[in-house]
Amino acid sequence: MAQSDAYERIAKAALNQYGVVQKELRFLGHSGNVTFYVEAPEEKFLLRIHQPFSGLQDDIWLRPDVIESELLWLVALRHQTNIIVQEPVQNLEGRWVTQVLADDTQDVFYCSLLRWIDGYVSDTHRTPQQAYQLGSLTAQLHRHSSQWKLPQNFVRPIFDENRLRAALSAFYPAVSYGLISPEHYRMLTQATQKIESMMKTLGQAQDVWGLIHADLHDSNYLFHNEEIRPIDFARCGFGYYLYDIAESIQYLLPQVRFSFFEGYQTIRQLPERYLEIVEGFFIMAIIYNYSFHLNNPKEHEWISNDVQHIAKRHLHKYLEGESFLLESQLVPTE
After folding, report:
1. DSSP-derived 3-state class of residue 10
2. Domain Aminoglycoside phosphotransferase spans what residues (predicted)?
3. 184 and 306: one domain?
4. Could you list the residue range(s) of the whole structural domain that residue 104 is in?
5. Residues 110 and 148 in one domain
6. Would you say residue 247 lies in a domain?
7. Count of domains in the chain?
């Protein structure tokens, strides 16, 4: 793993391939990608080095064809909708993904450059109006996805039963670590089986399944004046539109979640059993998040505490067939 100074060298080498002369290059963070803020004489950018935090993702996210496919959706959203997104920039060779070799190890790093968009991440609980706006934005993304003709060789990960089972298996070491009890893992396993059965009944028709953001949590959209702007499409892939909804609303207070659904239905209709289905996907999103964070020791205390809350507030009710989405008082901490 390269250190921060090595990442800066890689960032500068990548910018040379775009012909961008930076006035300022500032490290922003390292999670799914290494990110830098870039200020040029007349424009600002976000530079991404597609190198995840150790152990947090499988290799598919690092493939250049997978990265390029994400960028192609952003280009389409930028030119075919009114949604404000970070528009990708082609390098001097007309490519969306830029390859850089590390000086010392000759390891290959893939980079992408996006135009910067203004806005801020809110650290307060969402109001009913903001939840309503978020629902409308999510529906706009789904409407575009359901109508967009995919480019040739478009490839993104799939959020299906196989990925859910893989996430549950990847989370099993939490038992041996002593982070969660065998009983709670058993409950997660039972929930997974119930979710799998539900998914088989849904099918994958165009109105229920398509390209989704898959990570539109409260740090992945910006507020700008009265507008919400989605960012960080790095985990986008193919999945159920109702799963995409579940991923977002788990970070909303229960009392504003219905406002999300109201906003959504101003753009797209929801199926009759949407609440029951979203509750299953709500649990699925939680399992994904646990498996994603397990290899980061800094998250272990949160995981241990959160599983206990989830088991008490959500899992028990879900396994008993009781609704919980609009009643629970749990506030997610991640």
Report:
1. helix
2. 32-251
3. yes
4. 7-115
5. no
6. yes
7. 2
Number of residues in the chain: 334
Cβ atoms < 10 Å from Cβ of 103:
12
Percent of the chain, pLDDT > 70? Answer: 95
Same domain (yes/no): 133, 199:
yes
> Could you tell me which of 280, 294, 286 has the C-alpha nearest to residue 322?
280
Summarised one tens digit per residue, pLDDT across range 113-128 is 999 999 999 999 999 9
Q: Which structure tokens are listed for 311?
A: 């088991």
Domain match, 55 and 139 both: no
- Chain CA centroid to CA 268, Å: 21
**Residue reference for tokens 């646990």:** 290
- Give the integer Cα–Cα distance in Å for 24 and 103: 22
CATH number of the domain bearing residue 289? 3.90.1200.10
Question: Do residue 198 and residue 290 come from a single domain?
Answer: yes
Q: Tens of pLDDT along 73-104?
A: 999 999 999 999 999 999 999 999 999 998 77
pLDDT in tens, 225-251: 989 999 999 999 999 999 999 999 999
The model's confidence at residue 275, banded by pLDDT at 50, 70 and 90, is very high
How is 269-326 classified by DSSP, letter by letter?
A: PPPTTHHHHHHHHHHHHHHHHHHHHTT-GGGHHHHHHHHHHHIIIIIHHHHTT---TT
Q: What is the DSSP letter of 221?
A: E
As a whole number of Å, the end-to-end CA separation of the chain is 25
Of 34, 81, 272, 310, whose CA–CA distance to 188 is shortest? 310
Does residue 206 lie within any of the structural domains? Answer: yes
Separation of alpha carbons 277 and 256, rounded Å:
18
**CA of residue 329 relative to chain centroid, distance:** 24
Q: Strand 227-230 and strand 221-224: pairing?
A: antiparallel
Which residues are bridge partners to 110 per DSSP? 99
- Mean pLDDT of the 148-160 span: 96
Query: Does residue 2 form part of some domain?
Result: no
